[in-house]
């Protein structure tokens, strides 16, 4: 009941049927709604008049007393029937019911004689056409074949398969076809089973593969596949697209036939039968396609609606099926024709009625049809109309003001003007569809409206409606007027100096220019009154070089766009080549790539220098810390006032000298009671200088020995007056106290090195 109009709707519609010759036929049609309701019938679009052969029953059904496939006058009762129901709200048409006569042709395939060895496979086939589809049964030796024998398989299309043949299977076979129209018998065929079962190897072979089938949902499909071979091959099924076949409704008949019950659209596809030799990859395949059709059915029904006069009514009707159904709209039983205010969109799924009036009030039907069937749904449009509404506004005029403005004026309606609360101006480009229309509201005391922001050189249509609290008036007459043409806008202009005698004028194309045919370029010396030009340039040109200029003067360059309506405003630029040339000489352009390379080189040098400096500092520190150990300073040519006592080498080797208080730590580490510095001896070697200046330049080192407050001052000598002689290693003494005449107390403190 969903989507039905409450005023008129079908309860039962006629359905497809197969009629028997000379037998009565009843087509059912039941309607509900507001009485009185009139029901009539049509066949192939022609009204059926009650007669002795066909007449309507009291409940609205059609009764055909004796169905005739072909009458003496050449007419036939076969065809498409529909019933129509009408009341004062509108008219409905039912779905079309296809009526066909029951028939049966002669057999066009009869079973053939066959000789098959024992253990093999026998196949008989007979084929016949009829409506409805004949049921085919098999007889052996004039007796029905025992279907309980699992080696005997009967397929719906008239095929008999016998596997694992035995001697008792020999006999005479024929088939019997039956439907409501007739019963027919095929010719006979003899089956002979010869010899014993062979053990010779035979490759698998498919005797008969699946046929291409086109069926409707909920029917049953049987895909035949019969294979032979020795050993007996294994038959399997798959889909070519890799999808699983599934298990629900799937059954295997005999040794390899696939039966699919209660078909759905998802069962459509290409099916592959494979015969495999057991234990190997040797196989043979055959394939067939299955197409499952689905009759049209509605996903969304149209809904009955009520709308005020002047508004828009929209009906939506969405159907599905396989193949996809075609949608047709009817208005009170007649095919709906589109117009300026009636539009169909989305493959006819959406019906839009703009600016509805009382003439649009009707029952609208959506018919969905495909090769598998048809269906219909209906809805009613009620147009709300109140008495006493204003008549349409009068004398609508439109005058062009400019390229983007039109002045629309009108006069008030002639009737029922007291309740008017305002007017609505409906505006649309004349070339646009009705759904592109837009509105502007106007107060009730205003009888003109300035419509702005229009497009130049464009035709517009206008009409007015007067509104009250109870509804709107009918639309006024439509007036059409065009806006004026418009000259292009100012282009953007840029000047670039190429050299001392050439500049380049460039500009950017823009939609703000509007419709233009091209550009005009002018230029002159500023002290002259006359321009050079115009230089006419096409609309797709965006640059122009001005050459042979004088570098000593200033130039004025002017650019404008033009079209058939005239020249637009110009853009002016001034340029001086002299200043540019002087600036180029004074400030030559930098070689950015070279500077960048120099910067990179300088930066790299700084980084490398820092690394080298840090490395040198580290080595100096290590050198000061660990160098100069075990070294002696021996002066050769000292000043006369300095006397250096000569110490025997043996004693020198025994005692050793330490510069700046440094000792041989290797020996200190071996024996804490080793050799120590003899302060008196050091004073004799480096006596203090009587000059204060020499004292200030000296190297001072303080070291805590046996007397912590003793301080040794060492004079600095010129390089040519002293030399460094490496200390000769001494053998370790057996008694550390015997190495020095006066052994001072050992010092465990650290030495300061200068």
TrEMBL record:
GO BP terms, alphabetized: cell-cell adhesion
Biased composition range(s): Polar residues: 643-654, 689-704
Domain Fibronectin type-III: residue ranges: 392-486, 487-583
Top-level taxon in the UniProt lineage: Eukaryota
Gene3D superfamilies from the UniProt entry: Immunoglobulins
Region (Disordered), start-end ranges: 643-754
Gene Ontology terms: cellular component: membrane
Annotated membrane topology: Single-pass membrane protein
The entry's keywords: Disulfide bond, Glycoprotein, Immunoglobulin domain, Membrane, Repeat, Signal, Transmembrane, Transmembrane helix
Cytoplasm in keyword set: no
Boundaries of every Ig-like domain copy: 8-100, 105-192, 204-287, 295-382
Transmembrane residue ranges: 606-626
Localization of this protein: Membrane
Residue ranges, compositional bias (Basic and acidic residues): 663-673
InterPro entries referenced in this protein's UniProt entry, alphabetically: FN3_dom, FN3_sf, Ig-like_dom, Ig-like_dom_sf, Ig-like_fold, Ig_I-set, Ig_sub, Ig_sub2
Alphabetical list of SMART domains matching this protein: FN3, IG, IGc2
Low complexity bias (residue ranges): 735-754
PROSITE patterns on file: FN3, IG_LIKE
Family, per entry: Belongs to the immunoglobulin superfamily. DCC family.
Protein name as it appears in the record: Immunoglobulin superfamily DCC subclass member 3
Species: Melospiza melodia (Song sparrow)
């Amino acid at each position: 009941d969903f989507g039905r109009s409450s005023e008129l709707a079908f309860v039962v519609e006629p359905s497809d049927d197969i009629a028997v010759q000379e037998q009565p036929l009843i087509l059912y049609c039941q309607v509900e709604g507001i009485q009185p309701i009139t029901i009539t019938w049509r066949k192939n679009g022609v009204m059926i008049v009650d007669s002795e052969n066909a007449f309507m029953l009291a409940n609205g059904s059609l009764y055909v007393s004796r169905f005739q496939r072909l009458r003496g006058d050449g007419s036939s009762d076969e065809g498409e029937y529909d019933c129509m129901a009408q009341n004062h709200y509108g008219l409905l048409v039912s779905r079309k019911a296809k009526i066909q006569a029951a028939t049966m042709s002669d057999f066009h395939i009869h079973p053939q004689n066959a000789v098959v060895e024992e253990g093999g496979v026998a196949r008989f086939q007979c084929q016949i056409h009829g409506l409805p589809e004949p049921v085919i049964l098999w007889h052996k030796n004039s007796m029905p074949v025992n279907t309980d024998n699992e080696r005997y398989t009967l397929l719906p299309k008239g095929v008999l398969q016998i596997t694992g043949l035995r001697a008792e299977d020999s006999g005479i076979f024929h088939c019997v076809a039956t439907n409501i129209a007739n019963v027919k018998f095929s010719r006979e065929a003899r089956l002979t089973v010869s010899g014993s079962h062979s053990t010779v190897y035979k490759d698998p072979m498919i005797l008969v593969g699946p046929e291409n089938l086109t069926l409707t949902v909920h029917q049953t499909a049987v895909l035949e596949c019969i294979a032979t071979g020795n050993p007996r091959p294994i038959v399997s099924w798959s889909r070519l697209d890799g999808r699983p076949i599934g298990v629900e409704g799937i059954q295997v008949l005999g040794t390899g036939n696939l039966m699919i019950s209660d078909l759905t659209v998802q069962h459509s596809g290409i099916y592959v039968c494979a015969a495999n030799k057991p234990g190997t990859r040797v196989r043979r395949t055959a394939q067939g396609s299955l197409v499952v059709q689905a009759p049209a059915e509605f996903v969304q029904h149209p809904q009955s609606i009520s709308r005020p006069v002047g508004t828009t009514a929209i009906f939506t009707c969405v159907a599905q099926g396989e193949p996809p159904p075609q949608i047709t709209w009817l208005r009170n039983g007649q095919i709906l024709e589109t117009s300026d205010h009636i539009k169909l969109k989305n493959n006819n799924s959406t019906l839009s009625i703009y600016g509805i009036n009382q003439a649009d009030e009707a029952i609208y039907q959506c018919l969905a049809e495909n090769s598998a069937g048809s269906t219909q749904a209906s809805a009613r449009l009620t147009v709300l109309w109140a008495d006493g509404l204003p008549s349409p506004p009068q004398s609508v005029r439109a005058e062009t003001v400019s390229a983007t403005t039109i002045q629309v004026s009108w006069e008030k309606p002639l009737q029922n003007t007291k309740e008017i609360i305002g007017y609505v101006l409906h505006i649309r480009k004349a070339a646009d569809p009705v759904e592109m229309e837009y509105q502007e509201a106007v107060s009730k005391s205003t009888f003109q409206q300035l419509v702005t922001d229009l497009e130049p050189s464009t035709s517009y249509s206008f009409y007015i409606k007067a509104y009250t609290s109870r509804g709107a008036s009918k639309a006024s007459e439509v007036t059409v007027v065009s806006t004026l043409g418009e000259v292009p806008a100012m282009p953007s202009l840029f000047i670039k100096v190429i050299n001392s005698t050439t500049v380049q004028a460039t500009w950017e194309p823009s939609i703000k220019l509007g419709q233009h045919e091209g550009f005009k370029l002018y230029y002159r010396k500023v002290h002259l009154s006359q321009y050079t030009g115009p230089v006419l340039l096409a609309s797709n040109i965006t640059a122009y070089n001005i050459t042979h200029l004088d570098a000593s003067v200033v130039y004025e360059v002017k650019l404008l766009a033009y079209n058939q309506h005239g020249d637009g405003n110009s853009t002016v630029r001034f340029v001086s080549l002299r200043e540019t040339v002087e600036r180029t000489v004074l400030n030559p352009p930098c070689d950015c790539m070279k500077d960048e390379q120099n910067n990179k080189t300088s930066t790299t040098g700084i980084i490398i220098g820092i690394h080298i400096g840090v490395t040198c500092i580290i080595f100096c520190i290590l050198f000061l810390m660990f160098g100069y150990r075990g070294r002696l300073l021996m002066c050769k040519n000292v000043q006369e006032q300095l006397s250096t006592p000569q110490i025997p080498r043996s004693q020198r080797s025994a005692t050793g000298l330490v510069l700046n208080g440094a000792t041989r730590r290797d020996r200190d580490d071996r024996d804490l009671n080793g050799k120590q510095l003899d302060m008196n001896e050091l004073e004799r070697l480096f006596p203090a200088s009587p000059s204060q200046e020499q004292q200030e330049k000296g190297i001072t080192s303080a070291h805590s020995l046996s007397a912590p407050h003793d301080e040794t001052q060492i004079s600095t000598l010129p390089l040519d007056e002293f030399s460094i002689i490496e200390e000769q290693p001494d053998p370790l003494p057996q008694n550390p106290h015997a190495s020095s005449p006066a052994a001072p107390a050992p010092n465990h403190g650290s030495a300061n090195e200068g």
